[in-house]
From TrEMBL:
SUPFAM superfamilies: Homeodomain-like. Keywords: DNA-binding, Homeobox, Nucleus, Transcription, Transcription regulation. Residues 24-76 form the Myb-like domain. This is Putative homeodomain-like protein. The keyword Nucleus applies. Pfam families: Myb_DNA-binding_2 (PF23082). The keyword 4Fe-4S does not apply. It comes from the Eukaryota.
Amino acid sequence: MKWETAPSSYISNSSSWMMEDSLKSTIWTPVENKLFETALAKFDKDAPDRWQRVAEMVPGKTVADVTIYECLVWTPQI
């Protein structure tokens, strides 16, 4: 396999598209919130594939996006 160096114009723009993708997954619309709540109610909290199934019900969200809920629930209040 032959590797080539990417032009600097590709590299300088690469961080902005990565940030845009990151922002898209962290900003939730009201519709996404409702789909998420519906999915949480639908799948048992002890189901081994719960987060995968929840993510599948919220278009554009990943398992990592939806599992943040678990972190928020278990974060102690200050």
